[in-house]
Write a structure and sequence with these properties.
single chain; mainly alpha; globular
């Protein structure tokens, strides 16, 4: 039976999806909006506790119990790129001139997509976004290149438990009988899908950038020194703060929406569960993995659900940590991300569904 709390949570989910699209003010202040929604969700579900507050406050600055979190990585990378931006820009210009901007973007997307499982999705997405930001090309190309990189990194980081929270949680929850998941469990389970997905997003980046780059000849946003320094150190710190607020908000939302996941979605059939995984566009995919993945599932259920989370996590900015970092560094708005990312991710999501449940 659906209780009033459930109605309110479903209503809140609708608000989260629609408000940034319908309200320019909300879209301009997306981090504050999600924090407000997270606080509202925690209040509706009576989830407030000192433990939750502590988790929300410390999650952006802690990773696996060590004081090296997303906030510090984004801030440190921003300071490094700001301090040595002239040398880095020169190196990027040489590489992109030699390879061409389309090939350069594709190589960055593929290399960091696969490397993200080792260096972490956080580090990979910061590097990708900063490199793309400093390219001498149009903003449209930078935005789409950033979205492709976020898709690729979100996929590649799932291969090892050090890549992202999703993979960490999956390995921990499957570490006992019957799977006894070890460090390379997800590599063995997912590599034949994840590696082609990373390659696909790299090829899509190549094709789009090549087509778009040819159309903007001469109409390129150049990054002169004055322009590059316009935001100054203040912008570097503000980007890190925005990421901090967003991650805190996702902690509150994830803890609160876990009630719905446990109650309505956990015991669905594999194909329906795959489609439900699209919720990770709004509810952080690590939360869905924590609530649903367990040793009682078959390998095929685990594989298909994780693939659903990996792809749909790129649909909207809140879906994955790489999205949040890329959107913050490149200044991508909610509607802009949705308008460009959904036509990329939804067809991949549906084709993968057909392959898993009708071909295989």
């Amino acid at each position: 039976m659906i209780v009033p709390v459930d109605y309110m949570l479903f209503g809140l989910l609708v608000v989260i999806l629609l408000a940034p699209i319908l309200s320019h003010r909300v879209e301009q202040n997306l981090e504050a909006f999600f924090l407000a929604m997270g606080m509202a969700a925690a209040t509706i579900t009576s989830k407030w506790s000192w433990e939750l507050v502590y988790e929300a406050v410390t999650s952006p600055v802690m990773l696996h119990g060590s004081p090296i979190g997303i906030f510090q990585v984004v801030l440190l990378a921003g300071l490094i790129f700001y301090k040595w931006q002239d040398k880095i820009l020169l190196a990027i210009e040489r590489a992109s001139s030699r390879l061409g901007v389309p090939v350069f973007v594709a190589v960055v997307t593929f290399a960091l997509g696969l490397a993200s499982s080792v260096i972490s999705a956080i580090v990979a997405s910061v590097i990708a976004a900063e490199l793309i930001y400093m390219l001498r090309t149009s903003r449209t190309i930078k935005v789409v290149a950033g979205i492709m990189a976020a898709y690729a990194i979100g996929a590649g980081a799932a291969l090892l438990p050090i890549g992202e929270p999703l993979s960490t949680i999956a390995v921990i929850k499957l570490s006992g009988e019957p799977y006894n998941a070890d460090f390379f469990f997800l590599v063995r389970l997912l590599w034949e899908f994840v590696v082609p997905l990373v390659a696909l997003f790299a090829v899509m980046a190549l094709l789009f950038v090549r087509r778009a780059h040819a159309k903007i000849a001469g109409d390129v946003e150049t990054l002169h020194e004055a322009e590059r320094r316009a935001g100054g150190l203040r912008e570097v710190f503000m980007r890190a703060i925005r990421v901090y607020v967003f991650i805190s908000a996702l902690v509150l939302l994830g803890e609160s929406f876990e009630i719905l996941v446990e109650k309505y979605f956990r015991y669905l059939s594999p194909d329906v569960l795959y489609l439900v995984g699209a919720m990770s566009a709004v509810v952080d995919n690590a939360t869905l993995a924590a609530a649903i993945i367990g040793p009682e599932l078959t390998l095929f259920q685990i594989e298909s659900f994780l693939l659903s989370l990996i792809v749909s996590g790129g649909f909207l900015i809140p879906g994955n940590v790489p999205n949040i970092i890329v959107a913050s560094i490149l200044g991508i708005r909610f509607k802009e991300w949705a308008r460009l990312a959904l036509p990329i991710g939804v067809p991949v999501f549906l084709v993968l569904f057909a392959i898993l449940f009708y071909v295989m």
